[in-house]
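JOB MANIFEST
job_type = single_chain_structure
chain_count = 1
residues = 350
[input]
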Amino acid sequence: MSPDNPPLGTPTPAAPAPATPADHPRRPLDRIVPLIHLLPSRRPPTGTGTSTTARDLSVRHRLLLALSALLTLSLFLSYEGVHGDANPLRTSSAPAVLSIDTALYALDQAQHDAGSAAPTSDFQKQISVAAQSLAAAAGDDVGGPAGRQALQTVAGLITVYAVKVQQAQLQPADSVLREAYLSYATSVLTDKGSGITARLTALRAQQRAAVRSQSAFGPLLWCGWTVTLLLAVALAAALLETQLFLRHRFRRRYNRGLLAAAALLVAWVVTALLFTVWTHRGMAHTRTVLDQRLTGPLITDAGRRTAAYLAHTGFRASAAVWILIGGILLMALAETGLRRHIDDYRFRPR
């Protein structure tokens, strides 16, 4: 019997079992390959097909332009709210108060000389000072058309007062006619209802009220400047976040356009804030000076002080146009800083 044909009943040997991985030593590459599948994939998530960089750039671009526009508008309105009244205060309201005070003081001095036995040069000088002061007040547009009409009436009454005093001084010392002329002149000057002093006092109160209104920093201005500063902080934070985003996404350390925009923002807002503080402080000091009763040398001193307090307010008021120019430059720099990256992603094939 051949070995190829074993006798019946002889058990057939089992086939060798297939080799398992444990039977062979694992190579280093076999251990690394499975771990690769556990790493995060750089591909976009399934179903999106595109990167979010273009959308992120677009959102930041619109945010920077919107905040820049809102800040420009808010800063301009808040700045004008303070500086818009500085020039009228310097050129009209404050000089008008001083002119009326000068006229009242001159008329008071003239009244002391009205009882002289003969016409005096001091009386004529005081009347001339009062008339010139009223003319200056009229040139300052005191109280509008109604105020100018009131000053014209007062100027006419001063002429009547001066004529009656001169007529009284031409009469004998104990003359009844002299007393009548003086009595009539005094009533023209001091009558509580329609006298010169009463009319000028009312005009002075009106002008002092205008000074207080022009130099006030009311709730509306506080609200405007609060919104302005909040917008400035928001824009600065947006510029910083955009700079960090570009640095992380594009590996660029600095973006010149955004850095220039940040520098302009700080200089722009700080300069406007300093100009506003200086102007308002000068206006507040002017109001304090003019709220006092001014007579004699105090009027001249008050004129010098108010001129010093309100110096350069015209220049600072004219700087409002630079706020608009600064806002345009700020938006242009933000646009320049992001435009190249936006265009790169806009025309990149998907």
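[summary]
DSSP finds twelve helices and no strands in the chain.
The radius of gyration is 44 Å.
exit_status = 0
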